[in-house]
Design a protein that fits this description.
CATH class of the largest domain: Alpha Beta
Bound molecules: 4'-deoxy-4'-aminopyridoxal-5'-phosphate
Number of strands: 14
Distance between the termini: 42 Å
Order of helices and strands: EHHEHEHEEEEEEEHHHEEHEEH
Oligomer: single chain
Strand order of the largest sheet: 2-10-9-8-5-3-4
Helix content: 25-40%
Shape: globular
Structural class: alpha/beta
Number of helices: 9
Radius of gyration: 21 Å
């Protein structure tokens, strides 16, 4: 499988480890138990139930989910949660606080604003989301139904390195682009959620790790399908769930577990980010990282070339070396290397090597 394999740095859907792709291909066909493919299995049967329980158990273990919380697997990715969160957690007449650190948190706030009150507790928009407003500067409403943060901002490549402590409002965190690459303490996070397509594998699946008591807040008037409580009672099988995606997530999580779990994923994330940022920092006359140094993400490294006209050349050179998915988001431009759980340290090293070579050829090393 490795021959002709592209080194994929896309922001999501993300790169999958070869071993997991090979296993998925091998095991997609008829299963020993029933002679049916996972694509055919009934979501109501015991065989499928075991598949889903395995995925949920692995995610719970890898994230150290405490007794107080429950893991729900829901279709619709992170964006559906932008709408479900306020509908469930913000009682009529109350307001929710949002810390806006990037385009995705802005979208989350916008969706929440559609049918209720939102306060922006802090925003980094004035400086183009290059920095994370320091937690001491957040203007918090003590009576807020919840406080929403984005733990990693996929587009500009910034990260909320410290999860705040001692908050009055329950903390809700979109961790789509850094879950399983860092410590996310669930004693401080009431709801941890995201799309699965970056760090957990398949696109179209969302994970919601929610403090159980909060599920009781949802109004009875909310349609059943929108209520976390109802999904919980039905063990995330209120309707036909994305069975194959849940199976695929399980394969990816088993791989993560076997490779050494969260600790090893964190080590690799640190190493990959170190390699790429070191290459950028070694050539300040050529490269210009987007994020302020103290806000740098470990999973999305966004940067410009000082000579904007040469960005295309660098992308072409990368493509010639088998690296793709490196164009920056259209709102930022430049380049972005997205490196989630499935990305090898070796590929990050290859990209860092390309950056060094490119800068050296530019003849302005370390200038
Ligand atoms: N939040 C963040 C931080 C993201 O990066 C993304 C997708 N790039 C989303 C939310 C939206 O995710 P989805 O496409 O799964 O709705």
């Amino acid at each position: 499988m490795a021959t002709g394999r592209t080194m994929w740095f896309g922001a999501g859907p993300a790169r999958w480890p070869e071993k997991v792709l090979e296993r998925a291909a091998r095991e997609l066909g008829p299963r020993a138990e029933s002679g049916l493919s996972i694509l055919e299995l009934s979501h109501r049967g015991a065989e499928y139930a075991a598949v889903q329980e395995n995925t949920v158990a692995l995610l719970s273990r890898l994230l150290s989910v405490p007794e107080s919380h429950e893991v729900l697997l829901l279709p619709g990715g992170a964006t559906m949660q932008f709408a479900m969160l306020p509908a469930n957690l913000r009682p009529a007449g109350s307001s929710a606080d949002y810390v806006v650190t990037g385009n995705w948190s802005k979208k989350a706030a916008l969706l929440a604003r559609a049918d209720g009150k939102v306060r922006v507790a802090a925003t980094g928009e004035e400086d183009g989301f290059r920095e994370i407003p320091p937690t001491q500067s957040w203007d918090l409403d003590e009576g807020a139904a919840y406080l929403h943060v984005t733990t990693n901002n996929t587009i500009c490549g910034t990260q909320l390195h410290e999860i705040p402590e001692g908050l009055t409002a329950p903390l809700v965190a979109d961790a789509s682009s850094d879950v399983l690459t860092r410590e996310l303490p669930l004693d401080r996070i009431a709801v941890l959620y995201g799309g699965a397509q970056k760090c957990i594998g398949p696109a179209g699946l969302g994970f919601v790790v929610i403090r159980k008591d909060l599920m009781e807040r949802a109004p009875e008037t909310l349609p059943s399908f929108w209520r976390y409580r109802d999904h919980s009672k039905a063990s995330s099988r209120l309707n036909t769930p994305p069975t194959a995606l849940i199976w695929l997530a399980g394969l990816m999580l088993e791989w993560i577990d076997r490779e050494g779990g969260l600790r090893e994923m964190m080590r690799r994330a640190d190493e990959r980010a170190r390699l790429v940022y070191e290459a950028l920092d070694a050539h300040p006359a050529v490269f210009e990282p987007v994020a302020a140094p103290e806000a740098r993400s470990r999973t999305n490294v966004a940067f410009r070339l000082r000579d904007r006209d040469r960005e295309r050349d660098l992308l072409e050179l990368a493509a010639r070396d088998g690296m793709a998915g490196l164009s920056g988001h259209r709102s930022v431009g430049g380049l972005r290397a997205s490196m989630y759980t499935g990305m090898t340290v070796e590929a990050a090293g290859r990209f860092a090597g390309l950056l060094h070579d490119f800068a050296e050829r530019s003849g302005r090393v370390g200038a």
